[in-house]
């Protein structure tokens, strides 16, 4: 039996500083294939090539990946500054509309890092370009000169709301996660429930209240070592279960009228 399809949002890159490409880290594909047990499909996130309607028809679920470019602050009513960094307006055009459609229809998605921020912005929330500049906040960026293993190593604890969605999923009120982001959520969007926080109060886990489908999103990168990490594995397993349930409903044969 064919596995359900998970669309993985690709990012725009220049290979060798001159060859444009859409790509995503292989750790995203590995987490989807090996832990969620779904078929990974990389999406060229550009409205010149794909539409939200086409993506929702082809894919059963979505992973909103992390990425170096940030959501453009115009999307939450602010002007761009140097602190906001690089942008990818083509990805903004696809993912923000995709989030809203998935929430409305109940189609599953998992937001990661930038994807976590996209979910908040898509529903009317705001971001801060440099969380470390806020009083009492830590530097959540990765060590720039470290190895990949060091960059993705657990950096801080995340505390979940007692009895909340993430607490029940993880079987623990507190877990250790990695941290590779500069921006962060300031004002939650419509129906956004912040369900987990770093020790300095930075939002780290959310879901959409009242949404009919899987909307769990996290600020850290659970795709790293997802098959073996005790925090990542239950997240991708639950996501895969939600995608299979969606695919089963979509593919169920219509019953003839009585």
What does this structure look like?
By secondary structure, this protein is an alpha/beta fold. The protein has one domain: Rossmann fold. Helix content is 28%, strand content 22%. The strands form three sheets. The protein has a nine-stranded mixed sheet with strand order 4-1-5-6-13-12-11-8-9, sandwiched between helices. The chain has a two-stranded antiparallel ribbon with strand order 2-3. Strand 5 (61-64), helix 3 and strand 6 (109-112) form a beta-alpha-beta unit. Helix 3 (89-105) packs across helix 4. The protein is globular.
Features:
alpha/beta, 9-stranded mixed beta sheet, 258 residues, 7 helices, two-stranded antiparallel ribbon, 28% helix, Rossmann fold, globular, single chain
Query: How many distinct beta strands?
Result: 13
Under CATH, the homologous superfamily reads: Class I glutamine amidotransferase (GATase) domain
CATH architecture: 3-Layer(aba) Sandwich
Strand content: 15-25%
Uncertain stretches: none
The name of the CATH topology is Rossmann fold
> What gyration radius follows from the Cα positions, in whole Å?
18 Å
- Rough outline: globular
Give the termini separation.
30 Å
Mean pLDDT: 93
Count of discrete alpha- or pi-helical segments spanning 4 or more residues:
7
Structural class: alpha/beta
The CATH class, by name, is Alpha Beta
Total number of domains: 1
Strand order of the largest sheet: 4-1-5-6-13-12-11-8-9
User: How do the SSEs run, as a string of H and E?
Assistant: EEEHEHEHEHEHEHEEEEEH
Largest sheet: 9 strands, mixed
């Amino acid at each position: 039996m064919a596995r359900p399809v998970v669309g993985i949002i690709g990012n725009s890159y220049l290979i060798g500083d001159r060859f444009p490409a859409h790509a995503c880290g292989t750790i995203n594909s590995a987490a989807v294939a090996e832990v969620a047990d779904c078929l990974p499909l990389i999406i060229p996130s550009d409205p010149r090539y794909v539409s939200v309607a086409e993506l929702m028809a082809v894919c059963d679920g979505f992973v909103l990946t992390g990425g170096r470019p940030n959501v453009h602050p115009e999307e939450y009513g602010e002007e761009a500054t140097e602190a906001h960094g690089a942008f990818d307006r083509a990805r903004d055009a696809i993912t923000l509309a995709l989030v809203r459609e998935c929430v409305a229809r109940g189609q599953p998605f998992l937001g990661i890092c930038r994807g976590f921020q996209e979910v908040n912005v898509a529903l009317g929330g705001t971001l801060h370009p440099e969380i470390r500049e806020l009083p009492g906040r830590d530097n959540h960026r990765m060590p720039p000169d470290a190895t990949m293993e060091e960059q993705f190593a657990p950096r801080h604890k995340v505390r979940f709301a007692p009895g909340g969605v993430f607490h029940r999923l993880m079987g623990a009120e507190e877990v250790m996660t990695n941290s590779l982001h500069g921006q962060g959520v300031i004002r939650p969007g419509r129906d956004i429930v912040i369900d987990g926080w770093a020790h300095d109060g930075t939002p780290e886990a959310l879901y959409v209240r009242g949404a009919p489908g899987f909307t769990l999103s996290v600020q850290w990168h659970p795709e790293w070592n997802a098959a073996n990490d005790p925090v990542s594995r239950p997240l991708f397993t639950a996501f895969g279960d939600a995608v299979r349930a969606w695919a089963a409903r979509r593919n169920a044969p219509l019953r003839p009228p009585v």
